[in-house]
Amino acid sequence: MASLTPRKEVKSDATVRAIKRKPPITASENPKRRLPEKPSSYIHQSKWVSNNYSDLKLIGKGAFGLVYRARSKRHPEQVVAIKEILKNSLPDNVVCEMDLVQMLGGKNNILSTLATHKDMGAYIVMEYFPHDEFRDVIKSMSSNEAYHYMANMIKSIEYLHSHNIIHRDLKPDNFLYNRKHRRYALIDFGLSQRYSGEFDRAQKLKQRYSVTGLPNLPNPLTKTCQMPCLCEDFKPPCNGCLMKPEVVVNKAGTPRFLAPEILIGSSKQTTKIDIWAMGITLFFLITRKYPYFHARQNLEMVTELAALLGTKTFIDTAEKHGMSLKMDFELRPLNIALFAFTHRYGTLNECTALALPCDYCSQIFQYDQNVSSEDPKNDFCLCRPLDIVQQARILTQMDDRRLAVMLQMCLVVDPDKRESAESLLKKFSV
Question: Where are the domains positioned within the chain?
Fold first, then answer.
């Protein structure tokens, strides 16, 4: 691997003494380590808010906004939700949330906007949406209920994508569910981003006018993914970190829901990142484990996902994005749907049993040795590809089969092969 060696310079004794006396770089002096300004909240100082609403109670908060429950003074029986957008925390490239909710609200599970206002702060007033906590309902949610939850999420995301908007922070906490009334609400567009489709058009042109027979020349823009330096949390940083080129990549979102292309640091990010987040949400629904993954760093998350989807898929995808992803181990891709349903039904004894596994699965998984292997439907392993007919013999419930297909269409590592929201909506409608 190539390495950068700093050029030696001859310095006078006075220069050396001056360098030695120079104090270490502090967080405020180093732009890479400078702490962001803390966003300010002005809602309690706003005359417009106090003149129109009372009984404010904080019910939610995030990096980009605070949400309050309040009561309308004009219509005391009306309870509303007021979101205060924290201006100092907004990146330059996000969609103006106030414009977005006014343009798209009231349709396809996006809440209606009742009012907007700007003074010292920026406020969006929406209908108040009582909902159940995802953690509370996931354990008892049936396959049919899970299917309707996901089908409604697909409908909402397709609606956004049809208007060239990427949500970027899709997760259960941002897709509310009222179980009693079977209502849904997609919320929090603080990270939403406009998408021009330039990458998709470039990809189609590349495929159309590709030249065959040419050697694979080294790409001077190739980047290498590797574990971060151990001095990440120390000040001043080491010389190696100071010499690293700064690559601007949008990594906004919740880590466990980030798509592989974001995790490896690719700048090619399309609407497909929302499809991946839907797949992760569905994985939690099927397994009834939330959260399932425990990684805190991007490359740690890649490792956890590679244990399910295989190391080769990540290495190949990184290469397509001009990256060099190195792993010191090799793991096979599993049948992600069957793996998820083993968690839902224990050892899948309710719909099948795991018997006669391959040598690879025997080393990784624990099997029920008391199950007979004479039944032909038991003759499979978790890393063996199955066609639709074989999978249908294992997952006997129609809703389970639909969820399995949906999961396999969403959790595709290569974004170019991942399904679009439009195609998912055609297949999984409510």
Answer: 53-128, 131-201+221-351+395-430
Q: DSSP secondary-structure letter at 353?
A: -
- Per-residue DSSP letter, 55: E
Strands 122-127 and 113-118: antiparallel
**In the structure, what pLDDT confidence band is assigned to residue 348 with cuts at 50, 70 and 90?**
low
- Its pTM surpasses 0.85: no
pLDDT digits (tens, 9 = 90+) for 12-44: 454 444 444 444 444 444 555 555 555 578 999
Distance linking the first and last C-alpha atoms of the chain: 53
Which backbone phi and psi does 28 adopt, to 5 degrees? Answer: -75, -25
C-alpha to C-alpha distance for 163 and 107, rounded to whole angstroms: 13
- What is the C-alpha to C-alpha distance for residues 172 and 129, in angstroms, rounded to an integer? 15
Report the half-sphere exposure of 3 (CA within 13 A, side-chain side). Answer: 5
pLDDT at site 97: 87
Give the integer Cα–Cα distance in Å for 60 and 72.
19
Q: Which neighbouring-strand residues pair with 325?
A: 225
DSSP structural state of residue 132: B
Burial class (CB in 10 A: 0-12, 13-18, 19+), 60: middle
| Closest listed residue to residue 416, CA positions, set 223, 280, 270 | 270
83 annotated binding-site participant = yes
Q: How many whole angstroms separate alpha carbon 149 and alpha carbon 285?
A: 9
253: its two tokens = 């979102």
> Which tokens go with 152?
């409604």
Kindly report, residue by residue over 147-163, the tens digit of the pLDDT.
Answer: 999 999 999 999 999 99
Handedness of CA 191, 197, 200, 203 (dihedral sign): negative
Between CA 351 and CA 286 the distance in angstroms is 14
Q: Give domain 53-128's CATH superfamily.
A: Phosphorylase Kinase; domain 1 (3.30.200.20)
Token digits of residue 105: 């609200």
Residue labelled with tokens 């429950």:
69
234 sits in the region (left: phi over 0; alpha: psi -120 to 50; else beta) called: beta
Angstrom distance (rounded) from CA 79 to CA 235: 48
Structure tokens at 422: 């439009």
Q: Which CATH class is domain 131-201+221-351+395-430?
A: mainly alpha
Tell whether the model's pLDDT for residue 104 goes beyond 80.
Answer: yes
